[in-house]
Design goal:
Structural class of chain A: alpha/beta
Helix content of chain A: 25-40%
Radius of gyration of chain B: 29 Å
CATH superfamily of the largest domain in chain A: P-loop containing nucleotide triphosphate hydrolases
Strand content of chain B: 5-15%
Distance between the termini of chain A: 35 Å
Largest sheet of chain B: 4 strands, mixed
Strand content of chain A: 25-35%
Low-confidence stretches of chain B: none
Shape of chain A: globular
Order of helices and strands of chain A: HEEEHEEHEHHHEHEHEEHEEHEH
Number of domains of chain B: 2
CATH topology of the largest domain in chain A: Rossmann fold
Low-confidence stretches of chain A: 1-15
Largest interface: A-B, 25 and 19 residues
Mean pLDDT of chain B: 84
Oligomer: heterodimer
Mean pLDDT of chain A: 86
CATH class of the largest domain in chain A: Alpha Beta
Number of helices of chain A: 11
Number of strands of chain B: 4
CATH architecture of the largest domain in chain A: 3-Layer(aba) Sandwich
Number of helices of chain B: 16
Largest sheet of chain A: 6 strands, mixed
Chain lengths: 299, 363
């Protein structure tokens, strides 16, 4: 896809000086269920911020509160400096959301879907053609959406979320269920948007995706933020720093770099010339999540 | 509420019907039924009696017979050369009955001379025409003789009961009654099927979530209501055209359609908001549909007073009364203020519940 040039024309005209999103003590209860239980974080303008967690951890509820689809039980949140409850009508034209469900009008064509939402936002229908080009669906513009593959639908959802040139874009599991090629296209699109100045708030199950895309990552478990930092810092803090060593006798050994005994062992092999190769094994966000939650995201 | 969003949603749904088989069937089926009733249901017409007349001189008798038919019977006169020609016409069934009037008949009647008058009836069968003319002759001849009626008859017309088929048929015709019943069905299908499906599907397929990112629940519901009004505004004139329905009172007709549509749209959208899936809607929406449509047709069979009282409290019955009055030359019921009041009452209840459900959903 030739994304960059088209996306450049779609990026927000005005850039925010302060944080794009500020969340303070945000709470959402559904009866006795504490979906979100007092979270605090902020997202800088133009960055990609990922919220990771199990199903039911509170990711989608957080997006619903920040996009005005549900009111917080307590706490406060601002998007682009506007309160998500009091200033909701002013926030709506400035943000957009790609939801987990592929909620498109399937009897309408791809172009009709985009043109319809463009009219809802009071934007000319011309933007529909630009966006279809952007997401690589120009050739399928006149086909009904029900004939689209999952990947095409997902790209159309992203295109739909761009009709109003949002300054903040919420992406709820945008690559769930996509084949690797389609997921790659969506990720490239997200990167292009971010480089153009759009603030992206992402939830995902895929740790590699969050690692690749995010400027900051927050882990949420049982409605609480349990860790928040850059992916590198999180991996350094919670991941295991190890190295795989191949010795002359063709045996392999894994050494933990934080462990004094292992470090001395590696030093000895090096001095005796027994080491053929050393491969550093950096921790992953999956390791971080397991360290924090006690189980992997796939469990 | 944002007018641009409401209009955009409405425009999308109006066009969507062309691609949705369910919507097309819901709109076309009542139109088809209307055409069918129009074709297969005969109107009960005023009977016609053909009288063959030969007269040897000037006489007022045939014309007075024709006038006596009034609004009950149409008397057609056929002049014959002589008595043989009269008998021939009756034999060939070209006339129901024949009269052979002698010369100087009118003068002889006036003078009280009881002149002979020959009436020719077809043999071997009971003819309504012959019986009617035979029965009418005495009164006509008394009139010619200048005799007064032995009593003065004052005719009083009562308001017909809903089941008074005779009155309905006389003033409107069975065909037109059934066609109007189908028109009621058309509006009910739009309000209780098309609109709820459109609304429920938005929530079931989560497209409402995308709409709510820029609009509100009220925008969505108002958009659907506008779709209902548009479908009614387009389909009712088409219905009148294809069923060749002529209106006696277009203003009353328009008022009936508007009041009924406004009332039913509220309940249709309420139902659409309550159902979680279209499948659930398909199961349950037929009940309110039946409750609405049935009174229109039950009106033809006549019901006990208590049952009629209940039916009279429904918008379907009241709308049907207004439609009947608007389509007949003279009002059959003449109760349009009551009809409008009943429908307005239902509309108030419907919109109150709709607003309550919207507020609950927004919360």
């Amino acid at each position: 896809m030739a994304l960059s040039t088209t996306v450049d024309r779609l990026i927000p005209a005005a850039r925010l000086a302060g944080p794009a999103i500020v969340v303070t003590g945000l709470v959402k209860h559904y009866g006795n269920v504490k979906a979100v239980d007092g979270i605090d974080f902020s997202v800088a303008a133009g960055e990609i911020f990922s919220l990771l967690g199990h199903n039911g951890a509170g990711k989608s509820t957080t997006i619903r509160m920040l996009s005005g689809r549900t009111h917080p039980t307590a706490g406060q949140a601002t998007v682009l400096g506007l309160d998500v409850v009091a200033d909701l009508q002013r926030i709506k034209p400035l943000i957009n959301v790609v939801t987990e469900e592929q909620n498109l009008y399937e009897r309408m064509t791809g172009r009709e879907n985009l043109a319809f939402f463009a009219r809802l936002y009071g934007v000319g229908g011309v933007v529909a053609d630009e966006l279809l080009e952007t997401v690589g669906l120009a050739a399928a513009a006149k086909r009904r959406v029900k004939t689209y593959s999952n990947g095409m639908k997902q790209r159309l959802l992203v295109a739909r979320a761009l009709v109003n040139r949002p300054q903040v874009l919420f992406l709820d599991e945008p690559t769930a269920g996509l084949d690797p090629a389609s997921a790659r296209e969506v990720r490239d699109l997200v990167k292009s948007l971010s480089s153009g100045g759009t603030t992206v708030f992402l939830t995902t199950h895929y740790m590699e995706e969050a690692d690749e895309l995010s400027d900051h990552v927050a882990f949420i478990a049982q409605g609480k933020i349990v860790a928040l930092d850059t992916p590198r810092e999180l991996k350094l803090r919670y991941g295991n720093r190890t190295a795989k060593v191949l010795l002359k006798d063709r045996s392999e050994a894994t050494v933990r770099l934080d462990d004094a005994g292992d470090a001395a062992r590696l030093d000895g092999w090096m001095k005796s010339g027994e080491v053929l190769t050393v491969h550093s094994q950096e921790g992953t966000l999956e390791d971080v999540f397991i360290a924090l939650a006690g189980r992997s995201l796939s469990q | 509420m944002n007018l641009r969003i409401v209009l955009t949603i409405a425009a999308k749904d109006v066009l969507a019907a062309g691609r949705d088989g369910r919507m097309l069937v819901a709109l076309i089926m009542p139109l088809g039924l209307g055409v069918l009733y129009n074709l297969i249901t005969p109107d009960v017409k005023k009977p016609t009696v053909t009288v063959a007349v030969s007269s040897a001189g000037e006489t007022q008798l045939p014309e007075l017979l024709r006038q006596a038919g009034g609004s009950t019977v149409t008397v057609k006169l056929q002049t014959a050369a002589d008595g043989a020609a009269v008998r021939s016409l009756v034999n060939k069934q070209k006339a129901d009955v024949g009269l052979v009037v002698p010369a100087g008949f009118d003068a002889a009647v006036s003078a009280g001379e009881a002149p002979a008058l020959t009436l020719v009836r077809p043999g071997g069968t009971t003819s309504f025409g012959a019986s009617y003319v035979t029965a009418s002759l005495d009164a006509v001849l008394r009139q010619m003789a200048g005799q007064h009626s032995p009593a003065t008859v004052a005719v009083q017309t009562t308001t017909p009961a809903a089941g008074d088929l005779g009155s309905l048929v006389e003033k409107l015709g069975l065909r037109r009654y059934l066609v109007l019943g189908t028109l009621l069905m058309l509006i009910a299908m739009i309000a209780f099927y098309v609109l709820p499906v459109l609304l429920t599907e938005e929530y079931e397929k989560k497209t409402a979530d995308a709409l709510l990112l820029i609009g509100s629940q009220a925008d969505i519901v108002a958009g659907k209501a506008l779709v209902g009004l548009t479908y009614v505004a387009v389909s009712v004139p088409i219905f009148l055209l294809v069923t060749q329905t002529v209106l006696g009172n277009p203003l009353l007709f328009t008022a009936a359609i508007l009041a009924l549509t406004a009332t039913l749209v509220a309940f249709g959208l309420l139902i659409g908001g309550l159902a979680r899936t279209v499948s659930q809607l398909n199961t349950w929406s037929s009940f309110p549909l039946l409750v609405l449509i049935m009174p229109a047709f039950l009106g033809l069979i006549g019901l006990p007073a208590w049952a009629q009282f209940i039916l009279d409290a429904t918008p379907g019955t009241q709308a049907m009364k207004m439609l009947v009055d608007s389509a007949s030359a003279q009002p059959v019921y003449g109760t349009w203020p009551i009809s409008l009041a009943v429908m307005a009452g239902w509309a108030v209840v419907g919109y109150f519940l709709l607003v309550r459900s919207l507020a609950a959903r927004e919360a």
